Amino acid sequence: MKIGVFDSGLGGLTVLQAVTKVMKGVELFYVADTKNAPYGEKTPEQILQYSLDITAYFLKAHQIDALIIACNTATSAAVKTLREKYPELIIIGTEPGIKPALEQTKTGSIGVLATPATLVGEKYQDLVNVLSAKEDVTLYEQACPGLVEQIEKAEIESSKTAQMLERWLHPMRENDVDTIVLGCTHYPLVAHKIEEIMQREMNLIHTGDAIAKRLLALSETKGHVNEGDLNISLYTTSHIDKEIVANIMGGDYTIEQITDL
User: Fold this and answer.
1) What angle do CA 113, 115, 118 make, to 5 degrees?
2) What is the per-residue pLDDT across 144-196, written as a single tens digit (0 to 9) for each?
């Protein structure tokens, strides 16, 4: 079975890593569209076009059987169109984990960190409507412009990143938030910084594991036998920090730049 995974950069590797823990006997192809990053500050029309172009590349170059949109922003902009255009493909998107956050919070105060595009997207707004019936839950939404760029530049431990997170998280800390939805696949890469700033035991909700389990279930309905070796190929459309890639993925992969996207 051949599986394509894409994101604007490094963030989707957190999803890819989760997939490698669950799936066996598959070929994994990952595209980091760093040339067009960050998606979270592009228009929905731009993001849709990037998603269509990458999916077409996967089908032409690698004949994929399944597609994972490892990006909340791209999911919001493109998953419906992609499913209509490619009904034969298994297509799994990435959505903020509102439901598990509701299940795990004890204080009733939930934070959501996301890109600006995700917070105004239709799919996110639909998810938030679930909260409207729960009077005992308070939602603290925070757009995080610039955080993806800091992560892509390997500035995770920098004072600038710490200052950004402190500014965004201060109201959540003051309002007894105990559960934070990481509404971008990049954000698990700064999870340790978030916990430091929140100064308490936190439920940090990200969706890589849920995506991997969903992929396994859908692939088995298509006849996939989950045994055998993994083959991982990473592609980028521009520069990518290979040290961070290695920290996330280990060393068992190839990586090359592609120019036809």
Assistant:
1) 100
2) 999 999 998 999 999 999 999 999 999 999 999 999 999 999 999 999 999 99
Q: Are 32 and 16 in contact (CB under 8 A)?
A: no
Q: In b/e form, how buried is each residue of 67-95, taking b as 16+ CB within 10 angstroms? A: bbbbbbbbbbbbbeebeeebeebbbbbbb
Find the catalytic residue in 71, 112, 119, 169: 71
**Which is nearest to 128 in space by CA: 142, 116, 144, 141?**
141
- The pTM of the full predicted model, rounded to 2 decimals, is 0.88
pLDDT of amino acid 128 = 84
Q: What is the pLDDT of residue 151?
A: 92
Catalytic residue among 184, 205, 210, 215: 184
List, for the chain, all residue ranges whose pLDDT scores fall below the cut of 50: none
The C-alpha atoms of residue 247 and residue 243 are separated, in whole angstroms, by: 6
Strand partners, 154: none
User: What are the pLDDT digits (tens) for 228-247?
Assistant: 999 999 999 998 888 889 88
Q: Which residues contact 161 (CB under 8 A, 6 or more apart)?
A: 147, 150, 155, 190, 193
Q: Say how far residue 196 (Cα) sits from the centre of its chain.
A: 22
Residue 144 is among the residues annotated as catalytic for this protein: no
| Residues in Cβ contact with 86 at an 8 Å cutoff, skipping those fewer than 6 apart | 55, 59, 67
